C-alpha cells in the first residue's frame, strides 16, 4: 500500500515538473500533501504493529 501512495507522489511531481495547466499544478500539490499524510499514517501503523508483535511474542 505504501508503494501505491509513493507512486501517486511520483506522478504528481512529474506533473509539477512538466505540466502546463495551473489547475493541474494545484491538484498535483494537493495530491502530494494527501499522499504524504497517507504514507506517514501507514508508517505509524507499521511501527505500532511491530511493537505489539514484540510484546506478544514469547520470550526465547
Q: Would you write up a description of this structure?
A:
The protein is mostly helical and 60 residues long. Helix content is 87%, strand content 0%. The protein contains two helices and no strands. It has helices spanning 2-18, 22-56. The longest helix has 35 residues, at 22-56. The protein starts with a helix and ends with a helix.
Order of helices and strands: HH
Number of helices: 2
Q: What is the C-alpha radius of gyration, as a whole number of Å?
A: 17 Å
| Alpha-beta classification | mainly alpha
* Alpha-carbon distance between the two ends: 32 Å
Q: Catalogue the unreliable spans.
A: none
Helix content: over 70%
Strand content: under 5%
The coarse overall form would be: rod-shaped
Mean pLDDT, all residues: 94
Number of strands: 0
Largest sheet: none
Topology:
Layout: H1 2-18, H2 22-56
Task: Summarize this structure briefly.
With 60 residues, the protein is mainly α.
Key words describing this protein structure:
single chain, 60 residues, mainly alpha, 2 helices, 0% strand
Amino acid at each position: 500500500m505504501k508503494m501505491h501512495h509513493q507512486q501517486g507522489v511520483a506522478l504528481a511531481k512529474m506533473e509539477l515538473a512538466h505540466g502546463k495547466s495551473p489547475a493541474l499544478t494545484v491538484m498535483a500539490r494537493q495530491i502530494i500533501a494527501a499522499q504524504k499524510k497517507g504514507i506517514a499514517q501507514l508508517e505509524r501503523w507499521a511501527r505500532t504493529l511491530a511493537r505489539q508483535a514484540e510484546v506478544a511474542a514469547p520470550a526465547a
